[in-house]
């Protein structure tokens, strides 16, 4: 079943172009997102939505964080994101006309389910609709939601989530477009650009996967390290968080993600020759600011790995190693594509460390207890 792959995680990383194709299949028609992919009443529900509340755990939470940037930046709709284990145990203020979105690979995560059940108690009174983005049909979360969107990633066996995350982001981009159009917050032109970008994704991911050999080489600098820092700005901040989570869960190296602008508010004190710093540097509006953050790290001797695109032109001198990971800078496609080299990096660090990649210690694929 593993074919040419040593681990399920590796197989699943390489299945991502196909997983994206399968998730888009039947959801787009002639450059338009089919709003009905979210359910028959989706359009009517989306029209009434005034804000989005996303609830999830772990990797699924990170996909929600990326979506927050998209919703607020691209269609100006407020979007709140919180981990389920916090949300369910406080008394959150739920605004009228909220679209309550749970994101889950398994559909069985106990905290996410409890958060959904809690909000359902005030559903009528507050005109709340619930949507579940899930990889498993007939799961507890899908059974309890008004609207369902299935990510067609196929079974994910490796405990570390890879292709499920990528397809969650695709689902969220489709949701952005479907809500944007239903509410008149997105022009047809913008929708067409997003759809074209999504259709290019399988190819972009394929290209990013081709950097495996270079990344494998870079993984060596983590062999005798016990801590690493991941930096990004904008949507690359949640992607940095996901990169750090992947590294810690499969290689057991402590890793932390920071929005690069926060460096001088504390973490800069950590930087010395012993700490690898991984940065995602697309050629976007924040690049110049990010480059000055990189200089701050460089000046303190940090071992740096930078993933950039064809136009970023980060100087690769001294302790800074730069990989042109992609040609792409689209607001939707860039975070999805830049996540790929981070997955490969953690995988190869774990191989060097000799950990159990598919079954990391202390973790379970489906967290059905709180
Ligand atoms: C990390 C990972 C976990 C899950 C989390 C939520 O690689 O797999 O962090 O993302 O346990 O699980 P689901 O998505 O099934 O609700």
Automatic annotation (TrEMBL):
What chemistry does it catalyse, as a reaction equation? Answer: D-fructose 6-phosphate + L-glutamine = D-glucosamine 6-phosphate + L-glutamate
Where does the protein principally reside?
A: cytoplasm
Ranges of residues in domain SIS: 42-185, 218-360
**One of the record's GO molecular function terms:** carbohydrate derivative binding
- Supply the alphabetized keyword list: Aminotransferase, Cytoplasm, Glutamine amidotransferase, Repeat, Transferase
Signal sequence extent: none
One GO process term, biological-process aspect:
protein N-linked glycosylation
Q: Name one GO cellular component term.
A: cytosol
- Where found, per UniProt? Cytoplasm
- Entry EC no(s): 2.6.1.16
The record places the active site at: 365 (for fru-6p isomerization activity)
Function recorded in the entry: Catalyzes the first step in hexosamine metabolism, converting fructose-6P into glucosamine-6P using glutamine as a nitrogen source.
* Subunit: Homodimer.
Q: What is this protein called?
A: Glutamine--fructose-6-phosphate aminotransferase [isomerizing]
Q: Which organism is it from?
A: Thiomicrorhabdus sediminis
Q: Which residues of the full protein are shown?
A: 252 to 621 of 621
